[in-house]
Amino acid sequence: MKTIKHPWLIALTIIYTIIIAYTFVNMEDNVYYWDYNGYWRVWEDFTQAFLSDPLHSLASLKHSIRHDDYNKSPIVIIGLFKLLPIASRNAYILGLAITYLIPTFICFSLLARKMVNSDRSIIPLLSYLIPFSFIAFWAPTLRGYPDVCGLIFIILSVTYCLKHDLTEKFSVSQALKLGALIWAPFLLRRWYAYTVVSLYLTLPLLQIFYHKGRLSLASLKNVIANFFIAGLTSVLLALICQWPLLKRIITTNYSYIYSAYQSSFSYSVETVINNVGALFVGVVILSALLTLIIGSFKQRVLLCFFALNLVISFILFTSTQSPGIQHDLPFSLWLLLMFCQGLFLLLSRCKSQSAMWCIAGGIFALLIFTQLHSLFGLANNSRLSPYLAVPTLPLKVENYSEYSALSNDVMNLTENGKRVAILSSSGILNDDMLNTVSGFKLEKHINYASQVDLRDNFREDTLMSDYVVVTDPIQIHLNESGQRVITVPAGDILNHIAIGQAYTRLPREYKLSSHAHAWIYKKTRSFTATEVSDFYQQLFSYYPEWKAQYSASLFRAYLTANISLGDVWGAFSIDDENNIFAHPGENTPTTIQWQLDGVKVLSVKSTGTTCNTDDHVKVKLSADGVVTKTFDIAKGATQHIDMSSFQGKTSTLQVAKEKSSGCDGLQITASQ
User: Are 590 and 564 in contact (CB under 8 A)?
Assistant: First the structure.
C-alpha cells in the first residue's frame, strides 16, 4: 500500500490542516511578538515587494541569504498564499502548514517504512498518520516558526543514505546530491548547523554498518571518498551562497552572547521532554528496548543512528543555549523515528489482525488527543495532562482592551514625531507586541530597547525617547542577570532615582495580563550629568567591560544637553555611531548646553559641500571661567577643538549661519 499515492488521504489531511490552522489563528489575540511575529512580517514585506518589483525582491533575497541570521528563503515559496482572500496571519500560517508540514509527513512516511520490512497495510498508513498527529511538529508551525522546513531535507538525507550504498563505489553524482541535501537545512535556518555536523559524524557509520554489517578497508575508503565530496559540496555551497554569514559565525562567540538563554543541562532535557510529553518519552524508551530485543541487525543499527543524532545534536546545541520550541524539531524527529521503529516491529509480529488494529488505533487516538490537548486545551484538567506535551495554546492576553488603549494613547502622544521606548520584555508586554496591537502604526515611533545584555548591549537612544512605558512588576522573559538593560532603567524610572528623576508619570494606569500594570512616563527635561553617571555606574557594576565603551561617549554628553533649535532649519541629533548632525536656524542659532566630560577633542566638520556659495559656519564654545572659543568653519573644512579646559563644566555650543543655510550642515564627533 503506497499511502502517499492515495489522493483521498492527502486531501483529508489538507482539509484537517486548514481547519486546525484557521481555528487556531482565529482564537488568538493580535499580540504577536518577536519570533512569533518576525517571519510573518518578513513574509508580508517580501511578497508585497515582489508583486510590485520582482527583480528587486529577488536581489534582496540573495542579499538576505548571504548576510542574515534569519534569511528570507523559508518564506519565498509560501508567498503565493498572500493571494488568498483571507486575513494575513491566516494565510501565513496556512502557507507554513501546507507547504512544509504535509511534505514533512510524506517524507517521514517514506523513511519510516524502510525501518521495518513488512507487508502489513497498517504500517504505511501509520507511517503517515503518526507524524501528522505529532504535536512537536505542529506547535512551532502554528506559532509562526518556519523551521519545520529543515526537517524535510534531514529526512531526505537519511532516506537517500538508506537507498544508496555509498560503500560499494565512489560516485561523484551521489555525493554531490547528498552534500546539497545536508546543506539545505542550514541554508533555511542557521541553527540547523548542529544537526548538519551530527549527520556528517553519523551517516558514514550508518552507511558502513547498515549496508555492509561490518567495517572493511574497501568500504571505508569508498565512504570516506564519498563523504569527503559531500562535505566539500556542503562547504562550497555555504561559502558561495552565505560567505558573509559564515564569516560572522566564525568570529562570533554565540555561547557568550546567548549566555542569558543558557540554562542547566537538566533544564534543556526537561524542555525537550515537556514539548513531546513524558508519556511519549516513556513509550519511546520501551520501543527502543523492543527494537534491541527483537529487531534485526539493521534495525538495531538504525536505532543507534537515531539515538546518536539525538545525543550529539542535543549536546552541540545546548553548549550554546537552551532549546526553544522550534529548536526541539530535530530532537523530536529522532525520538519519533525511534518510537515508530519499535511500534512497527510490534505490529509486524502481531498475529491477531484485531489486536494489531486496536494497538494502532489506540496510539493514533492518543496522539490526536495530545494534539488537541496541547493546541486547544482539550481535557486540560485530566489526570493524563501532566504527562502529555505542554500546551501551546493560541496567543491570548487578559484585558486585551487595555492593550488597545495603551497602544492608542501612545499613538496619540507620538503622532507629531515624538518617540517612545517600552521598557518591558516578556509575553505580558514588549515593544514588538505593542507595535502589533497598533497594526504596526507605531513602527516609526518606537525606539526599540535592548532585550538581552550580552547580545544587544545597551541601546542609548532608548534614553532619548520622549515617552517611556514601564510595567510593575518589571517584565522580563529571562533571568534578571541577563536583562539588566531592562531592569536597571525601568527600576530607576519606577523608583524616581538617577535618570528616573527626569520623568513624570501620566495619570492613566493600564491593567495588563497576569496582574501587571503599565504606565506611560513623559521625559520632562534633559538628564543631569550626575543622573547619567549614576545610571551608568549601575550597568558598570554588572558589566565592568562596558565602561570603556560608554564612559566618555558623545552620547552621554548628548543625554545632558539642553537643546534650543534655531528657527526653520535648526537641527541637532545623534546617530548610532556617536555622530552628531547640527544645523543653525535661518535667523537664530542652534544652541546646546551640555557637559563634555571625558571628551578630549571635539571635531566639527562642515558637510555642506554641495552648495554653490562660498560660505562658512560660525561656531562658538563657552563656559564659566573658560576663555570663549570661536571658529569660522569653511565649506568642507574640519576644526579640532581641545576640550581639556572644559572638563567638569557645563559648556555652551552655539552654531550660527553666515550667508546661506544650504551650506551650514555640521558633523560633530569626539575622541577621548
Answer: yes
* 128 grid coordinates: 503517515
Element containing residue 590 per DSSP (H, E) = strand 590-595
Q: Which residues sit opposite 642 in a β-bridge?
A: 601
Give the per-residue pLDDT at 125: 86
> What is the model's pTM?
0.86
**Residues 172, 229: contact at Cβ < 8 Å?**
yes
Query: What topology is assigned to 554-671 in CATH?
Result: Jelly Rolls (2.60.120)
Question: What sign has the CA pseudo-torsion 345, 348, 352, 353?
Answer: positive
Q: How far apart are the first and last CA of the chain?
A: 76
DSSP annotation string for 96-150: HIIIIIHHHHHHHHHHHTTSS----THHHHHHHHHHHT-HHHHHHHHTT--TTHH
Amino acid at 469: V
Phi/psi of residue 252, nearest 5 degrees? -110, 130
Which residue, among 256, 236, 255, has the nearest Cα to 246 in the 3D structure? 236
CA 658 to chain centre: 50
Per-residue pLDDT, averaged over 436-448, amounts to 93
Distances from the Cα of 332 to the Cα of 272, 274, 329, angstroms: 8, 11, 5
Q: What DSSP string runs through 26-46?
A: HTS-S---THHHHHHHHHHHH
Q: How confident is the model at residue 517 (pLDDT cuts 50, 70, 90)?
A: very high
Ranges for all domains in the chain classified under CATH 2.60.120: 554-671
pLDDT exceeds 50 at position 490: yes
